[in-house]
Amino acid sequence: AGTPRLTYTDRWYWRVPVDLTFPSRGRVGSVGELDVDATLGEITVSDELLDQIAQRADRLARTAWQAPGADRPVISD
């Protein structure tokens, strides 16, 4: 992930970027952000947010491996 940044809404959170990476390709791109309570260390997350991150990651992975000559991983539906 990228560099977290300290953010205040109702309390202090570290906003942590979530990136998609592959061992053979490196960083492909950002797929979302997670908030971590700066005091308690708890991750603030919902099922909806996890679904959004998973959908972005899937789209980004499929796009990344369409480049000519790319060693394509197996991505199942």
**Largest sheet: number of strands, sense, barrel closure:** 4 strands, antiparallel
Strand order of the largest sheet: 1-2-3-4
Number of DSSP helices? Answer: 1
The computed structural class is alpha+beta
Q: How many runs of DSSP E, i.e. beta strands?
A: 4
Please give the oligomerization state of what you see.
single chain
Estimated radius of gyration: 15 Å
Mean pLDDT: 87
Describe what this molecule looks like in 3D.
By secondary structure, the chain is an alpha+beta fold. It is built from 1 helix and 4 strands, in the order E-E-E-E-H. A 4-stranded antiparallel beta sheet has the order 1-2-3-4. A hairpin with a 5-residue loop joins strand 3 and strand 4 (43-44). It starts with a strand and ends in a 13-residue tail after the last helix. 3% of the residues are buried. The model has no long low-confidence stretch (mean pLDDT 87).
Give the topology:
Blueprint: E1 5-8, E2 12-22, E3 26-37, E4 43-44, H1 47-64
Antiparallel strand pairs: 1-2, 2-3, 3-4
Compact description:
This protein has 77 residues and is of the alpha+beta class. It has one helix and four strands.
Key features of this structure:
single chain; 77 residues; alpha+beta; 23% helix; elongated
